[in-house]
Every structure is written in C-alpha cells, then in structure tokens.
C-alpha cells in the first residue's frame, strides 16, 4: 500500500502545531532532532521535515503529496497546488510598516519609496493593482531592521502581536493580507493517495470541530425550558432528561466555544443552575 507524503516545517513557528495536529488525529509519529523523514506506525503516512519556503515547490512537483504551511508562503511562491483547508493556527498579517515618527497619509505615501521584504511577489502584485510605483528590496529575514540601517524606507512583513515592530521603532500602517496555516495538496494525487487525504481530512474535521465547541450540561426549571432551548442550538437539538426533583430537567447540548460566555449569561438569567462546560475530545458531525 502506498504512503502519503506530508511535508511539514522542520523547525519554526509551524512545527509544533503541525505535529500536534497529526497527534490529535491519532497518528503516531516518532520524532528525533536530526531525522528529516519519519513514518507513522499506525497510519499510511510519511512525514518530511522541510524549510517552509520549499514546501509549495515540493508539493507542486509531487516530491511531497500534501503539506502544512502558512498561506503567506503559498501566495508568495504562487505554485500550482491545491489549497485544501485552513487549519486555524499561526494567525498573522502581512503589513506595511514605516518609522514611527513618519506622518502617514494614504497609500501614495509609498510612491517611489524603497520597501524591504521577504514577500516580494505579494508586495509587487499589491502595488501594481494600486498603480503605485515602489522599489522592492528582497531580504531573507530580520526585515524590521531595514529602515534603521538605511536599507529601505519601509518594510512589508509578518505582524502578529506587533511587538517586533514596536521594539524596532516602526508602526503598522496597512494590512495587506491575513494569513493562517493551511493544508495544501498536489493537484494530481492518485486514487489511493486521495483516499488517504480524505481519511486525514475526516480526522482533522473532528479535531477542529471539537476544539471549536463545548459540551454543556445544566439544570433548568421546566417552565423556562422553551426559552432556554431557544438559546441552545445543539448538534440536532438539545437532550432533555427529567431530574428526580419535580419541575426540573437536565439539558445536554453542544455550543460554539466563541459564543458560550454570552449564552451562559443568558441561561443564568433564565434560572439555569449547575452549569457544567466540558471539553470535547473528538466531534464527528
Ligand atoms: N509572529 C507570528 N505569529 C504567528 N504566525 C507567524 C508568526 N511569524 C510567522 N508566522 C507564520 O509561521 C510561518 C513560519 O514562520 P517562521 O518564522 O518559522 O518561518 P521561517 O523563518 O521562514 O522558517 P523556515 O526556516 O522553515 O524557512 C510563517 O510563514 C507564517 O505563516
Ligand atoms: O508581531 P510579532 O508578534 O512581534 O511577530 C512578528 C515577527 O514574527 C516573525 O518572526 P519570528 O519571530 O518567527 O523570527 P524569524 O524572523 O527568525 O522567522 C516575523 O517575521 C516577525 O518578525
Ligand atoms: Mg521560511
């Protein structure tokens, strides 16, 4: 049986989360520092540890079948690969930033300015669409240093918390794109490999659903059941079980992580008691 080759970042911002995702999918992998290839003992997959910049090219060529990397690298390299699924980690933005004491008006500020970046392709496309002429200085890293050493007037780089900009005397003025980790695939996978990708995707879906949802249990007075149920969507609809105490019921359901604080406040206001919120290990819709 053939194995699916998955490329992940060897060491960097994406490495740990990529391995964790595979582990959460029940895929066992033994890792050691120096080994650049490894196989899973319980899933038909081989893992290649690579520089993230190289992953689009390898996936296009079929050296790797699928890969995990930032959308920013996928756009920058512009290789012919299929984007399968966003993965919800490594969230960041690609931004234009300038020295903090400069007065910024609008995009025309950048006319004829020199901008340092590791993302020349994305940047060139952006300014071409805006019909603004800029000079692009491509550098491999430590981009934030460029204005202070006289290499460029501005930078175009990854921003997350903004602390790198701040400590280097820069301020963000334009967000060009937002990015997160994504799963990409070769465009011509054979039937067998596509089957393995589908199995992997099914597991990723279950892992992601479980992290985005909470299981909640609560006790509610029967006269408020209707109003409380209206607040709780559930996978189909909530489960209602009578309590030993007359006039009360227990409600079980699943709610979205990002709405549960709002909903819980409303549930309490309607007289709900003994509210338990539990992590979901896996969730299959
Ligand atoms: N500060 C950040 N916060 C969130 N995500 C980030 C941050 N910096 C980078 N990323 C995301 O993680 C990816 C990898 O970042 P990293 O800094 O590890 O890359 P790299 O230095 O190019 O690594 P490599 O050695 O593999 O080429 C980026 O392409 C981006 O998608
Ligand atoms: O807005 P912040 O939270 O400060 O994050 C932004 C910084 O993070 C990334 O670099 P990283 O720390 O990964 O180092 P690298 O340049 O060596 O890749 C990126 O290149 C920025 O410099
Ligand atoms: Mg890189």
From TrEMBL:
One of its GO terms (molecular function) is ATP phosphoribosyltransferase activity. Residues 51-205 form the ATP phosphoribosyltransferase catalytic domain. Keywords: Amino-acid biosynthesis, ATP-binding, Cytoplasm, Glycosyltransferase, Histidine biosynthesis, Magnesium, Metal-binding, Nucleotide-binding, Transferase. Pfam families: HisG, HisG_C. Its EC number is 2.4.2.17. Its cofactor is Mg(2+). One of its GO terms (cellular component) is cytoplasm. It catalyses: 1-(5-phospho-beta-D-ribosyl)-ATP + diphosphate = 5-phospho-alpha-D-ribose 1-diphosphate + ATP. It is an enzyme of class 2 (transferase). Residues 212-282 form the Histidine biosynthesis HisG C-terminal domain. InterPro entries: ATP-PRT_HisG_long, ATP_PRibTrfase_cat, ATP_PRibTrfase_CS, ATP_PRibTrfase_HisG, HisG_C, N-reg_PII-like_a/b, N-reg_PII/ATP_PRibTrfase_C. Pathway: Amino-acid biosynthesis; L-histidine biosynthesis; L-histidine from 5-phospho-alpha-D-ribose 1-diphosphate: step 1/9. Catalyzes the condensation of ATP and 5-phosphoribose 1-diphosphate to form N'-(5'-phosphoribosyl)-ATP (PR-ATP). Has a crucial role in the pathway because the rate of histidine biosynthesis seems to be controlled primarily by regulation of HisG enzymatic activity. This is ATP phosphoribosyltransferase. It comes from Empedobacter tilapiae. The lineage of its organism: Bacteria, Pseudomonadati, Bacteroidota, Flavobacteriia, Flavobacteriales. The gene is hisG.
